[in-house]
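Attaching the record inline, Q. Sequence:
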Amino acid sequence: MTITNGKVSLKHLVTMETLSNEEVLGLIKRGIQFKNGEVEIIHDRTYYASNLFFEDSTRTHKSFEMAELRLGMGMIDFDARTSSVNKGETLYDTILTMSALGVDICVIRHSEVDYYKQLIDSPTIQTSIVNGGDGSGQHPSQSLLDLMTIYQEFGQFEGLKIAIAGDINHSRVAKSNMQILKRLGATIYFTGPSQWYSDEFDIYGQHVDLDDVIDELDVLMLLRVQHERHDGHDSFSKEDYNRQFGLTEARYQHLKEEAIVMHPAPVNRDVEIDDHLVEAPKSRIVSQMTNGVFVRMAILEAVLNGKA
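Structure, as predicted:
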């Protein structure tokens, strides 16, 4: 990974841990340039991408598609339900096939944590891998769009007080964000049910009661309750969760005037956040979706720079 003439070059993007602070800021600023219409897109040839989503997705999947279309890339359709996966084909052999066919970038979401390791270590596979989410591991493109949203608002990360609230154990978004935000100088708080928190996260921040810090926060990052990743033994009440841990109207009023509310979506309305607050003045949930297209353009361009 390098930066040349202000442009980031990547071979793959699978985790935030492999990006330097300079590369993170370079991708954010490039995403802002794309959003502002300041970039002329010129390719030396047609590049091809395929989006291989083995878990359900709306925002990540479709914003990658939109980013690819805006960059003028050719798109190779893939649907796991009608592929040779149903005949027992492994992920490795699927990507080996895509590489052999000449696909330049494979954007992959898969339930297996670290699925990408054998792909990027293969001497045969030439396609670049962009991680669209690996189980409860990492979600680098979501992290970058979150960072872009914060940077547009505050112009910096140093000194910001940011709470990550909710189902932290099961959230790849939380894991990606806590690592990079800590490295960029933000103060991190974790809030939510103690059974959904692990002491391993203590190196990034402290677990607190949301009501104890809400008046001080610059950013409140809500997380979706991921029912599909629980073992089914937790008793759960939407009303109780909302009252104890969610963003209610009363808590919203305690936020500073300049504070912002974020959520990776899909939103469980009236669970993590009161329904009417999803589009409230302090909410940036819709802006995050918009920014997702432009930061993913920056990611794809950086990978294409690496190929060029």
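The longest helix spans residues 285-307. The chain has a mean pLDDT of 94.

More tomorrow.
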